[in-house]
Amino acid sequence: MLSHENRPATVQPASKPAADRLTPNGAPNDAASSHHLFIVTGPAGCGKSTVGKFIAKNMNLPFIEGDEYHPRANVEKMSRDIPLTDADRWDWLTRLREESLQRLSASQGVVVTCSALKRKYRDVIRVAPYYFHDVLVHFIYLHAPESVLLARVQARHGHYMGAGMVHSQFDALEEPGDEETDVIAVDVSGSVDEVETTTLASVQRAVLRDL
Asked: What are the boundaries of the region Disordered (predicted)?
């Protein structure tokens, strides 16, 4: 898993309002008329939490850790390396969408971690604009070879999801296709610093495209 442990801080906390941070490099602040939902996705070990917190910090946006919204039954299954079914995930995905929209009522954007392994899971989040009409949804898909992510999960401690879940998540994974134009794909095989810098730049470019 990508982690900040034992690394010196390289970026100072953002001090500008979220609306300003969403329009980098002096671009016109037309993005203030929209709300942005950034969903950081990918299999176990890809660094969703690390990257999501970095984006939220640097864009001065609230952060939602998706794993914290799983019902207890889901957590117990995953802690025993039992893959979740579609039925296990529907209420969790809906709850994440509703919590995200609630946060957007007080912020121009929000960053959420959610594995969103299948297209139909991503589609649950994609309907957010039906409830909050000026929402723009961006999926940030973090990817790397299974062997890389397996090694990261094996090295981490204190997380209920074990290494056995990596293979099952890759089995379930439906990588975003070209027609999913709201997806930003980032290779996370490199160092934490490289991944964070690349992802933040890609997110900022996506916001500018939507101006």
From this structure: 1-27
pTM for the full predicted model: 0.83
Residue ranges making up the domain that contains 52: 31-209
Tens digit of pLDDT for each residue in 61-76?
999 999 999 999 999 9
What is the tens place of the pLDDT at every residue in 76-102?
A: 998 888 888 999 999 999 999 999 999
pLDDT-derived band of residue 5, with 50, 70 and 90 as boundaries?
Answer: very low
In a domain, 7, yes or no: no
Domain assignment present for 155: yes
| pLDDT for the residue numbered 111 | 98
| SS3 annotation, the chain | CCCCCCCCCCCCCCCCCHHHHCCHHHCCCHHHHCEEEEEEECCCCCCHHHHHHHHHHHCCCCEECHHHHCCHHHHHHHHCCCCCCHHHHHHHHHHHHHHHHHHHCCCCEEEEECCCCCHHHHHHHHCHHHHCCCEEEEEEEEECCHHHHHHHHHHCCCCCCCCHHHHHHHHHCCCCCCCCCCEEEEECCCCHHHHHHHHHHHHHHHHHHCC
Within a domain: residue 22?
no
CATH number at residue 112: 3.40.50.300
Q: Is residue 20 part of a domain?
A: no
